[in-house]
Amino acid sequence: MASIMRISFSKIPAANSCKTVLTKINIQAVRTITSKLDELPPKPKPFDYKNKIFNITRYWFDKTSARFDENTKLIVVEGPLAAGKSKFAKEIADAFGMLYLPEANLDMEYINRYGFDLRKLDSQLPPDCRSFDVMDYMRNPNHKLVARMQIQQYLVRFSQYIDALAHIFSTGQGVVLDRCCYSDFVFAEAMFSRKFLSRAAYKKYYEYRDNTINELLRPHLVIYLDVPVPKVMENIQKRNISYEKNSPALTESYLETMERHYKQSYLKDMAKHAELLVYDWSLEGDMEVVIEDIESIDFNKYDYQDPQLKDWEMNKEEDYGVARYKYATRKEKLMAFSNIPDYDVPELIVGPMEADTFHKVRAAAPGAEYDYGYNANMGDTGLLFKWHAFDRSEFLPAIERRSV
């Protein structure tokens, strides 16, 4: 007899639709991006969505559309490994006064809100229940836990994308992402091509993706940094990250498969729904030219019949309010769509005794005894004066992936 160990998130109630009310207010959204050097019209201060709930009362008095301006956009920077995406994304965010979110990674899941790294508990856990992240994968791509890692990686990207949408609708500030959940499948394809994923795990990955991805709004703009595979391999050696430099996974064939699916699948499909810019980034280009290219995009040229930017077509205040409620208040409901049985994939199953050990060890971890803010042994104070257990721990921290 075997059982499933939860491979994603612990706080997942049953999914259900969000309820809202109708307000007939016509809104014409402005869709051109301008540099932060240009003065934008004043707007309401950002809503503290990480510590407050957007509910029906706030819907009436805190209008979401009032915060939207020219720079209320979601931009995703894509490209192969070692292309310079992080630096590029940070510069774009700085130029337009947007929030930069680092590439989603499993450190965001393994390091709890008190700063304790749950990977330190691995010595107390059975082998099938131990942590396994990208660093481990690069060193041992044939490990049994690769399938679980890839699904977890997708779910972290999915979770971060929800956070990005919550930030946009709650504050009006644009967001720049370093990769996103929409392109994550290029890694699964490369893994499957090298037999690092079994066919059952490969199909299960797409089951997770298909069950969740349609809940999101596609980005306004995708920027792809094109670097040929030989140059990618050269860059990997130059940046000298040990687990990448010596990885048996990062072969020419693996990187070519990623590139092929990026260009023939991801970019081809995304171009139907978002604006797309592609740059030859073999040598780092001129960011001023990139910024000018972005500023020249007319996001307002599409009408309601065009599929381009259709996800962001909102004509009533109610449309804005529903989206804000969905992403900022009901994230756990969205994550519930990843509650998928895995009994048909052997590498995703652990025995009942191992699963019991896992949950007991995790429950005894520093900071895990009570909700965040209520652990006196972790330095939390004022416990007698806290009258509710409101905890927005579902929002991911902005942690850069480790390089060592």
UniProtKB/TrEMBL annotation:
InterPro entries: Deoxyribonucleoside_kinase (IPR050566), DNK_dom (IPR031314), NDUFA10 (IPR015828), P-loop_NTPase (IPR027417). It comes from Ceutorhynchus assimilis. It comes from the Eukaryota. GO terms for cellular component: mitochondrial matrix. Accessory subunit of the mitochondrial membrane respiratory chain NADH dehydrogenase (Complex I), that is believed not to be involved in catalysis. Complex I functions in the transfer of electrons from NADH to the respiratory chain. The immediate electron acceptor for the enzyme is believed to be ubiquinone. SUPFAM superfamilies: P-loop containing nucleoside triphosphate hydrolases. One of its GO terms (biological process) is mitochondrial electron transport, NADH to ubiquinone. Its cofactor is FAD. It is found in: Mitochondrion matrix. Keywords: Electron transport, FAD, Flavoprotein, Mitochondrion, Respiratory chain, Transit peptide, Transport. Belongs to the complex I NDUFA10 subunit family. This is NADH dehydrogenase [ubiquinone] 1 alpha subcomplex subunit 10, mitochondrial.
